[in-house]
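[agent] plan:
  1. take the single chain provided in the ticket
  2. run structure prediction with default settings
  3. attach structure tokens to the ticket
  4. add a short note for the reviewer (M.T.)
[agent] executing step 1
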Amino acid sequence: MKFTSGMLLGCLILVVSSCKTEYQKLEEKELASGKVENELFLGLKLGMTKRDFFETCWELNKQGKLVNGGSELSVVYQLELPSGNQAKMQFYPKFYEDKIYLMPMEFSYEGWAPWNENLSADHLLKDTIAQLEEWYGEGFIEVANEDRTQVAFVKIDGNRRIRVFKKHISSVRAEIIDLPVQKKTE
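[agent] step 2 finished; step 3 output follows
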């Protein structure tokens, strides 16, 4: 039986597309949808200018909802996570062409101590994902490297990707990014 170049190309495409991970397939599908989701939290949005970010944070600070963080470039939001535990979320965006394209956030329980198992990073990870599901809806998938030394949970809605992972023994990091803008910066 002879293979024509068309059949060979079709087989090659089939092999290449079957090698894509669940994450890669999800990202391609969501980006192709054309859907745009820019909502972050507290009135902040992807694509917001630096000036609008500072003005919004200033207003929220005057209302007592946000405070300055421990470093020059961090904002702190106190919240109760779905478990009922008090936590703080520290954040400060990254800008591209004067607009927010990445919002890194770090969550930690207020009463964390190494001996308090109920406030471990494993519990915090589950609690953080539950909070993010309240804000952005369900649909997080687990992604990991081959030897599972790095595990994250990811949700993609159109242009917006949310990634969550344990950062430290006492903290969880979440990152919300505008994927098309990230691809420009790479």
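[agent] step 4 note for reviewer: The mean pLDDT is 89.
[agent] ticket updated
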